[in-house]
TrEMBL record:
Natural source organism: Cynara cardunculus var. scolymus
Similarity comment text for this entry: Belongs to the oxygen-dependent FAD-linked oxidoreductase family.
The protein's name in its UniProt record: cytokinin dehydrogenase
UniProt EC number: 1.5.99.12
Superkingdom, natural source: Eukaryota
Amino acid sequence: MIAYLEHFVHENDSEPMLQQDDGEVATTLCQAMDLEGSIDYRTTGYAGKDFGGLHASTPFAVIRPSGSHDIASVIRFASQSANLTVAARGNGHSINGQAMANRGLVIDMKKSSDSVIDLVRCEDGYAVDVGGGALWEDVLKRCVSKFGLSPRSWTDYLGLTVGGTLSNAGVSGQTFRYGPQTSNVTELEVVTGDGDTVICSDAQNSELFFSVLGGLGQFGIITRARVLVQAAPDMVRWIRVVYSEFDEFTRDAESLITRPEGDSFDYVEGFVFVNSDDPVNGWPSVLLDPDQLFDPSIFIRSANPVLYCLEVALHYSKGNCSATVDTTVHKLLGPLRFVDDTLFQVDLPYMDFLLRVKEAEKHAKANGIWDAPHPWLNLFVSKTSIAEFNRCVFNKILKDGIGGPMLVYPILRNKWDERTSVVLPEGDIFYIVALLRFTNPYQKSPTVNDLVLQNHEIVQTCVRNGFDFKLYLPHYNTEDGWKQHFGDRWLWFVEMKSRYDPMAILAPGQKIFTRH
């Protein structure tokens, strides 16, 4: 049966299979893989592209599993073949084809998760057990409505799967306090490249646990995660303030993330914007409400091509009166050195704040740009290099904007568990730089190829100037690139691969290892 199916995989005109109708073929494949779920080998196009829109491939089939047992069966089936690979696909939000498997098997992880969320007691308080294919936005809604609780650490966009972000890191404005999402799980269920289903944690199968977290899908597919939660607030005061000088912006941002928990905001991010009236890249991008106005005359004398916005948020309960919240905000903002008359703020429900990017997604879909290519670039840049990065990149290469957000904000290294597979730059503080381009097919703008080349220019600028940096959501086409990325962790990474996916079946789209 394996040889028969492999012939079908690599010979599209294979007569024996094509003489059967789709139902018969699907039944044959399900029986061969011992699936309780379903398989689709005809309408697989969506699994051959992703949010980035930069790469495309053709999978042999898409598996819609009924649970982790199906995922294990698919991997074991692939291991008996000569060259089949397996990729776990969440919500397809990868940028460089990381969740693709050319002529391989793609597992639709969203189909593997149901809506059940179990609340469990743990040493650190409470946690919830959720499926690896669950979307974070659904986890948020169910946790808040059912338990009045919420996970501690987020990503800005919540239309991502739990397993997908845990396979990378998962960062946002709460990372300075609680660490990335990989630091906020206490247990995982993982299906390894051998097809074994393993429960792992800090105390049980810890080697697998830490290698899978941030492991880019190389060692196993996360089918369940135990995520730490805490009491969910009712409301959020969302605030933005503007700086003309980068050093003042970074000093204030770093002071906020190093303050004691009760003496700072609950969320700290920031971004760079163009010193112009450009509606996407310029002053209007700072405003939080249509009724707010940005006074550009404040910056007429500024020769800086770009300006800087510090974005913070304070959680509070409905029982807090407005005056109490105002007093707290005034106290926290008091020492900051932002430009006068550039304070913008709104109050909104907690869930609306966390789902704020969902609104941007709706507008992008309505405007037809959500499905356009997104040549994003994400980096971690050490505090020691961020000022020069600003000078060389933000003020020169990107001085006219990128057609989307240019995020930059500091993160504390001690909030990360360095036993995971994530590699970081040196120093106690480093910055995330996220260049989130949205190309507009209806306006005259640089080609996608031009934007990819600009990303390459930025990376080469970092290398040429000796900046201490690492790519986040990394993508390399050569082994040398991956070796340089992992540095002295490379041999450990290779050892973990040989231990948990010895045939290199998993996550071929990352282009780190080749199927044996």
